[in-house]
Amino acid sequence: MAQASSTLECPVCSDLYNNPKLLVCNHIICGKCILDWLGKTKGSGGCPLCRAPILSPSTFHQDDLEDLVDTLPTDLTIMAKVESTKMLGSRCVCMSCDNNVTATSFCLQCNMKLCKSCAKNHRKFPSMKNHVVEELDSLTPERLAEVNHSTCKSHDDRLAELYCSTHQELICLLCSSTNHRVCTEVRVIKEAAAEKREKFREEAQRLREKEPAMRAKIMEAKAKLAEMRTKANKKFDTLQQCVERRRQEVNDLILAEEVQQDLAQQDQVRAATLSQTVVLDSLVGEAPDDALLDMEKAMTSRLQDLQQRITETDKIQGPAYITVDSQKLTVVKSAIATLGTRSNTPPEQSPASGSSGPKPREKALAEVLKVGDHVRLRMDMWWPSAERGRRGIVTAVPSSRVASRGEDARGFVDVRWDDGEEECHYMGRGGQYDLDLA
């Protein structure tokens, strides 16, 4: 006789499953083990294997954990195999005669162990002539679970022969003419199961096709993050010690918690997609028709939740890029070099309320430019395309044109363009910078 598979043992208690519950993370644990675990953690504990949430946070305040655990879907496929394992593993004595004779066969219809003599006579009765009797040595729990059929939900003494799609219930012939006589979708179990099996097979294939793309997207995002970090480090290596702090800040931006959370979220959904695919494959390949139909409602709800999570992660556009511009770094480096230098100019007075005077940093950046420096209009500004990159020479720092109007010229510079036209431009005033070094 085949031994019980290790897949029928609860990973928490290491015994055969007792009321196996399918968690959101797709791990299967005994109902009692879940109840004991939640009792120890006051209802807030995650899965003992992966720490994924077992219950919704909104239910933590409820005292009746047993009712909450009962709402988790039961893996009827596993339960049927466990019951078959227990049946085959019990005392191997003929259940037909009273002679305490060792059983050698098993009737799949009567669910009885039979000795050699009883097995020989079993099918002589007219009502049992079509019964299937198999040798115990070759009978497996999987085979026994496959042929054992569920009973009607309303009549425990009757086998379920039909499936009501309206109520998603296995019913007997009596129920079809009484409680379900007005239901429009009542079919034989085999026909209904074939349709649902195909549905789950398609869902498994769809999820299987999504998982590689999700993995590739995550790997691409990680590669881009690594590339951005490398570029930032190369640029920062050219700066003096005073910019080392900024280097770390940029690296922190690249490795921002939000980016990592996005990646972690996508990876969790990818793992859930792969796990759900395995569950659906097992359901399609191993579940008896009645078990599959019993689990349809729970699995359909689980698939809808997973599809919602996949849709949400598809909206994640990936990490923001960090621009590392050599010319901007040159300007910043020069600006830093001017900070803290000795000057005969009195310290700037705080501007009066409502004043638009430049901040100290703005003044410093404006003073980076010197008369005679070659500059150009920034390429990323609102300038007409024909003027972007226009080149010229600085003629006054700060702007004499602005000063001649009696205004505060700090944060402005004068430029004479190569075509002879002269203008003044922002170079720090109000945080605006029109020019790059050419």
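(ticket continues) Second input and output from the same batch:
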Amino acid sequence: MISTLFSLVFAEMGVILTLLFRSPLRKLLIVGIDQLKRGRGPLVAKTVAATLLVVFSAVLYSVMEIRRRSMESGVMNSTDEVLMAQRLLEASLMGFSLFLAMMTDRLHYYIKELYLVRKELEEVKRSRKDCEGKKSRRAEDTEKNKS
């Protein structure tokens, strides 16, 4: 399970790095995430996240039980030390994975909003140039009519 969690964390880190820098791969990734967020995608993502959160809480509970057991006896045996280290590693990887998934979602949202704002800004600039062009033509026409 730990190797799976490591590969998940590294994959999410790769996705975040790809989203941070402008490249053709970024556009492809944004289109892919858009496709995932349609239809049943959000339901599946929420189900996976909820399952991961439940497993995360179970691992944390296991860590607390091991710690409580060692506090009662006063000494932690080697088996409990190994289990505690493994559970802490699993818990940290799961928590980091959930955090990176949330970061990926927010980055995708902000990048899409940035594209929309840039597009609207270009449209406003274009319409402003058209309006200025029409005003200058009207001014030229009125000067010609006066002459």
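Agent notes: The chain has a mean pLDDT of 88. The two ends are 87 Å apart (CA to CA). Closing as not reproducible unless the customer responds.
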